[in-house]
Amino acid sequence: MAYLIEPPINSNLEDTAIPNLFITDFMPDAPDGDFVKVYIYAYMCCRQGIALTHTELADRVGVAPEKVLAAWRYFASRRIVRLIPQKAGDEAHFDVEFADVKGMLYAKDKPRKRALGGPGGLADPALARLFQKIAAICGTPTIDGGDAQRISGWLEECGATAEIVEFAYLFCRDERGVTRAEYVEKAVKEWAGKGLKTVADVREYRARTDARSAAHKQLMEALGLRYSVITPAEEKKFNLWIDDYGYTPARLLELAEKTEGVGNKLKYLGGIIRKEREPVGKSPGKTAAHGGRGGNSMKDRNEHFRRIRQKNEDAAAARMDEAYAAAPGIKEADDEIALLNMALIKTLTSGMADKQSAVERQNKEIRATSEHRAELLTAAGFAADYTDVKYDCPRCKDTGVLENGASCDCYHI
Q1: Neighbour count for residue 350 (Cβ, 10 Å)
Q2: Domain end position, chosen among 166, 197, 228
Q3: Which terminus of the chain has a lower count of CB atoms within 10 Å, N or C?
């Protein structure tokens, strides 16, 4: 007994099943609608065993051949197709293989091992752990396959670190109430583009940008422009005064008081600054002092604080190595604290009924392990805070910026 299905009279009467993940996760982000046309038409031909050249495909969907090549390179960057060179070293002539979008990372019947390369890439175990952490942050058992591919792209192509990716999800969830990958991507790309590698780097960067934003807002209010949106030109002007001319936000506010009763206060303030910067006395190259480390730019001051932090962090790392060598149990305690903190994050993002009691129990375990660590340090002849970073300025932790965004006293020394 054989069971047969009559083939259709015309292949155009068949159905082509496009993966929903392509429609929901990749199609909306395509930079050009023609790219989607190229993908779908070629996918249909592939399913029917029809071979087309790139030029023939371009004719079928009514686009230029260059756009077909651009479409394939775009979808290859998203890893939903693979470009197979027809000749070694020839990037212009290639075949296209459609990837298994649904089962790329999580197919149970055909597990696909992938070792990601590049400066931000992770081997499979580390990548799996990162996905588990992100799923816990999002409050889901696993992450979507399309999101997994997007995250892998951040690591491989954007140079983002796993620490930055994890923190971006935490930041977007806690600060914005959103954990969609396309939303998180904006933070990851911004931070990675700035060369930030650690959570400490991000916190420092945000402290600087938040402080700058607050300074801009205060100056606008002082100039009677409280309800005006800062234009890019005005922002550029403010940054010039601070970064290049060395004016502190406090000094700009002092000068803003001199614009009282003037029509165009912003223009008048610019005139005051120009006059202050005119040559003084018989030294043509000298300009009037206007506060802030003898007139050094903000860039110089930030570099000064960066060097101080680096010095103190390096010293703390050296003390940590010394403590680990003297008492190996300290390293074990640190590892246990790290695991307990991960478990705490998972609990906080879960929907378990007795979450509060679980959080209290885990916090108690963290405190107990921290106390045990302190005992190990003192038993080895070290102070309990021996491995902590010793800041030159404990108030701002050597950033020059306080938690409320205001400049620290040490910033103006």
Answers
A1: 12
A2: 197
A3: N
